[in-house]
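Contributing new records

If you add data, match the layout below exactly. Sequence lines come first and carry their own label; structure lines follow with theirs. Keep one chain per record. Anything else will be rejected by the validation script.
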Amino acid sequence: MPFVDNSQLITNNSQLDEVVDRFGSVSVLVIGDLILDKYTIGKPTRISREAPIAVLEFSRKYAMPGGGSSPACTVASLGGSAYLAGVIGDDEAGHELKRELAGFGVQTKGLVVDPSRPTITKKRIVAQVTPSMLQQVARIDHIDRTPINGAVEQALISAIEEILPLCDAVIASNYKSGTLTPAVVGRTRELARAEGKILAVDSQGDLDLFHGFGIVKCNQPEAEDALRRPLKSEDDFKNGLSALLRELDAQAMIITR
């Protein structure tokens, strides 16, 4: 159905608790673009004499799994068994990402190391204006969007073939950074169907690539791009979602607005 039946919505904490409790018996494989999110926090003290920017005095820094590694951490945090498959570089950022994932309890045997490309890293500079107010002022991304190929692509497919049968569901997390190639997506879809697994994707566009996935999620501009028309009224969304369900041969379509 293109819209959720309101009678099936979670309306109280006890229902939510029941859903969360069931995660303890769930195992999920997440496949996608793996990112290390790094944050440097500083206190703004004055305006620089060199340029019209705030000078931040360093306070602290930390790193978090981002991109496709984030939903795996969420599954693990809810008590489920989380498996991760993707590509990292042979660099300090890759090692740091693996350490962070281990801290969340995510299984990382599906990670493939590609020495020819850097681990995707997004470095954020954040001003702590007040104890509770943080304002991001700049971000630098270290990324190679070249699609994986050859031995690296085959190694990732082999990892998916090994892990997917062990899981109840598969989530593809697409940040358009070269991991989810047609070969990787195609083999994942083929194997999930053969094994009877739930198959979902959170995609930043490229919706045609995920034809035949059970659950497809994107945001409003991405849906509009796929439909080649704007979505404004409720009827627009109803008709657009129905069209995407048919075109993508999906069971459920989710659009964030």
